[in-house]
Amino acid sequence: MSAATTPRRTRRNAALLLGAALVALTATACNSTGGSTVATEPKQTAAAASAAGAATGAAAKPAESKPADAPKAAAKVGDTIALKGMEKGNTADVTAVKLVDPAESANEFLKPADGKRYVAVQFQIKATGAQAYGESPLSSAKVVDAQGQSYGPTFAETKAGPDFQTPTNIASGETGKGFVTFEVPTDAKIDKIQFALDNGFANQVGQWKIG
Q1: Which of 40, 81, 97, 166, CA to CA, is 20 to 30 A from 192?
Q2: What is the pLDDT of residues 106-123, one digit of tens each?
Q3: Where are the alpha helices (DSSP H) in 33-147?
Q4: pLDDT tens, residue by residue, 167-190
Q5: Going by C-beta distance under 8 Å and a sequence separation of 6 or more, which residues neighbour residue 49?
Q6: What's the order of all strands across the beta sheet hosting 175-185?
Q7: How far apart are CA 178 and CA 158, in angstroms?
């Protein structure tokens, strides 16, 4: 390698690193615009909407109305939350279908580190916007313990069920389902599940309360 080649390669590597940093900063800036919100209200099911409509039209004595400022029930495992991404056409109905805690490794040679365990969450994603869902659910999901400590996913596979592929591609109007696995301390009590579109960078974060 010539002496002239080394400076050129150094400048090229520096340019690549700078480009990666700019992409990260852009994503962060997009995420911070307008501020983040946490969505905890479950989407009303068709059955519930139908029942509500029937009750409204019935001649029976109307139920006692709740105060306008009454707190709404937080979404729990099994509920669906309507989420929005940074682009108008990127929306999805996301359901935290099931929590498996602890989850057994599907690989006899790959186990949680000492003092830790696997937790697996099954999500269902329905692309409701004009554009398809083409993201990585592994980058979108987190679990939070009772102390407020959050944990990102691991690539470990468990016997809970099939994982999401990376990336996951779901056509507009269609639904996909898969597990995301987390490695958490053995004594950590999982309190919440979170999910955000745009690979976790969307301003809106869906949140499900455990228990």
Answers
A1: 166
A2: 999 999 999 999 999 999
A3: 46-57, 137-140
A4: 999 999 999 999 999 999 999 999
A5: none
A6: 80-84, 91-100, 116-127, 175-185, 153-154
A7: 12
